[in-house]
Specification:
Layout (H helix, E strand, L loop, with lengths): L19 H12 L11 E2 L10 H18 L1 E2 L4 H8 L5 E3 L2 E3 L4 H9 L3 E4 L8 E4 L2 E2 L10 E4 L3 E4 L2 H13 L18 H15 L4 E2 L5 H15 L1 H6 L3 E2 L13 H17 L4 E3 L10 H17 L3 E3 L4 E2 L4 E3 H18 L6 H4 L1 H6 L10 H10 L11 H6 L5 H15 L7 H18 L5
Parallel strand pairs: 8-15, 10-11, 12-13
Antiparallel strand pairs: 1-7, 2-4, 3-4, 5-6, 8-9, 14-15
Helix pairs in contact: 5-6, 6-7, 6-17, 9-10, 10-11, 11-16
Length: about 450
C-alpha cells in the first residue's frame, strides 16, 4: 500500500521523449565513424610514472636475479648458435644446454647494447611512434586469440575476415597508436601460410606501425621482405619498421593486486636498465564484456599507465585470459584508452585554460554557457565518450534501454560499414600481392 492506494492504482509511467538534439549529435558522429580522427601518433606523458618501491627493495630483486642466473642458470633449447656465442663469451659457463652467468654480466650487455628509446616507422610517417623514455605507445590491440565473439554470432573460431575487421577498427581508433600483430588467429587459413595474410592485412588496411611474425625463422624473414616492399630495402636496413615478441612468459592473473605490484617493480627495473618496457594492457579472465571484464581490465590498464609502460600490448579486445577477442570490448577498451591518452597529456595552465576571458565577460552570479570562451572551447575541452550513456533515465528508456555492450555492438557495425582503407601505392600493393602468392605457392599449402 502507498498513501494513495495500491501500486496498481498509480498511473502508468510514460517516459518523455527529449532526445532530439542528442540523437542528432549522435547521428552526426556516426556519419563520420568511417573516417580517421586526428590524434597524436603516440603519447608524450606529462604525468610522471609512479614508483612505489625504495632502492633497497629493487636492489634485493636485482640480487636475487643475479643469484638465479649464476646458480640456477638458463637452458637454451634448440638454439645451437646461441650456445656457441655463450661458449665464446668471457665469464659465461656452458654445460650442455645450460648456461650460467656471473653477477652483472647480462645487465652490462643490455645496458651497453640496447637503446633507451627508438623510433618505429609507419608507412604513413605521420603515424610513426617513439618507444621508450618518457613516451608511451599506449594502445596496441590484444594478441593471439584463436576465438572471437560478438553479440550477434557469439563465440566462434576466428577467420581472416575477423582479423581484417580488427585491423580496420584499430586503424579507425584515434587512441590506438599501433596496428598490433596477431590480433586473432584466422583459423580458416592454414598455419604455414597464415602469417602472410595477416601481415598483408596490416599493410593494406592500416597505415599505422605493425608487428612482424616470429613464430618461425622463415616467417620472420618474410616479414622483413614484405617490409622492404613497403619501405625499401635500404630504409629497412637502417631503421626499425617492425617490432615483435621473441619469447615471453604469460601472466597467470589479471587485474589483481599482485599483478600490479609485479608490474610496478618490472617497470622500475627496466628504467634502471635503461630499456623500454612492454607490458599489458586490458587483461582479464572474463568470458563476456561484463563487470568482471571491466574491473579487471581497468585495474591492469591503470596499473600499466602509472607504472610507466612504454609499449602496452593487449590494450583492446582481450577476454578469457587471451583466448577470445571481443568486438564490443575492443571498442569499449579503445574508449578507455582514449581517456587515458587525455589524462596523460596533463594539465596546461594558461589564460585560455584558466578561462580568464570568461570571467571578464561575465559578472559574478551569471553562468558561463553563453560566453565566447565557452563557445570556442566546449567541443574540445572535455573528452566525450562515444559509448557511455549519461543521459536521463527517460531518454535511455526511450532509446531501447541499451547497455554499453549493445551500444558498442552498434558502433562496431557502423564503423565497419563506413570504413575506408588508407591509400597504398599501386606498385607496392601489386608487389605485396605477388610476393604473398609466390610464397604460398612455394610453401605449397593454400587456404583450407
Amino acid at each position: 500500500m502507498t498513501p494513495h492506494g495500491t501500486y496498481a492504482e498509480l498511473p502508468a509511467y510514460k517516459p518523455r521523449s527529449r532526445c532530439g538534439g542528442v540523437r542528432a549529435r549522435r547521428e552526426a558522429r556516426q556519419q563520420s565513424a568511417g573516417t580517421v580522427q586526428k590524434a597524436p601518433p603516440y603519447i608524450v606523458r606529462q604525468i610522471p610514472a609512479f614508483n612505489p618501491y625504495d632502492s633497497t627493495t629493487l636492489e634485493c630483486i636485482q640480487q636475487q636475479t643475479d643469484w638465479i642466473l649464476a646458480e640456477v642458470g638458463v637452458k637454451f633449447t634448440e638454439d645451437a648458435e646461441m650456445l656457441n656465442i655463450w661458449c665464446g663469451a668471457a665469464g659465461a659457463s656452458v654445460n650442455g644446454k645450460l648456461v650460467k652467468f656471473p653477477p652483472g654480466m647480462l645487465r652490462g650487455i643490455i645496458q651497453n647494447t640496447s637503446p633507451k628509446q627508438f623510433t618505429q616507422y609507419a608507412r604513413n610517417r605521420e603515424k610513426s611512434v617513439e618507444i621508450g623514455g618518457g613516451n608511451t605507445v599506449l594502445l596496441v590491440p590484444a594478441y593471439g586469440s584463436p576465438f572471437v565473439r560478438d553479440l550477434e554470432k557469439d563465440r566462434r573460431y576466428a577467420t581472416l575476415e575477423d582479423f581484417q575487421n580488427f585491423v580496420n577498427l584499430a586503424y579507425l581508433a584515434p587512441g590506438m597508436h599501433h596496428s598490433g600483430g596477431t590480433l586473432c588467429e584466422p583459423v580458416d587459413i592454414n598455419v604455414p601460410v597464415r602469417y602472410l595474410d595477416m601481415l598483408h592485412a596490416h599493410i593494406q588496411y592500416s597505415d599505422k606501425p605493425f608487428m612482424g611474425s616470429v613464430t618461425a625463422p622463415e616467417r620472420a624473414d618474410d616479414s622483413v621482405k614484405m617490409a622492404e616492399i613497403v619501405f625499401g630495402a635500404d630504409f629497412v636496413g637502417k631503421n626499425c619498421v617492425l617490432v615483435s615478441l621473441i619469447n615471453a612468459n604469460s601472466p597467470l592473473t589479471f587485474g589483481t593486486s599482485e599483478s600490479g605490484l609485479i608490474l610496478f617493480a618490472c617497470a622500475e627495473l627496466s628504467r634502471c636498465l635503461g630499456v623500454p618496457f612492454r607490458s599489458g594492457g586490458g587483461l582479464n579472465g572474463a568470458k563476456i564484456p561484463d563487470a568482471q571484464a571491466g574491473y579487471e581490465s581497468a585495474n591492469t590498464l591503470q596499473q600499466a599507465v602509472f607504472a610507466g609502460v612504454n609499449f602496452m600490448l593487449h590494450t583492446a579486445g582481450w577476454l578469457e585470459g587471451g583466448l577470445a577477442m571481443s568486438y564490443e570490448k575492443f571498442l569499449m577498451d579503445c574508449d578507455q584508452a582514449a581517456m587515458i591518452t587525455r589524462f596523460l597529456s596533463g594539465l596546461t595552465i594558461d589564460d585560455d585554460n584558466l578561462g580568464t576571458s570568461a570571467f571578464v565577460e561575465n559578472e559574478p552570479g551569471e553562468h558561463f554557457r553563453g560566453t565566447q570562451h565557452t563557445q570556442d572551447n566546449f567541443k574540445d575541452a572535455l573528452y566525450i565518450s562515444p559509448l557511455s550513456d549519461n543521459n536521463s533515465f527517460e531518454q535511455w528508456l526511450s532509446e531501447g534501454e541499451l547497455d554499453m555492450t549493445s551500444r558498442a555492438a552498434k558502433q562496431v557495425k557502423t564503423q565497419l560499414e563506413h570504413y575506408q582503407a588508407p591509400t597504398l601505392d599501386e606498385g607496392i600493393a601489386e608487389g605485396l600481392q605477388d610476393f604473398v602468392a609466390w610464397r604460398k605457392s612455394e610453401i605449397g599449402i593454400e587456404v583450407l
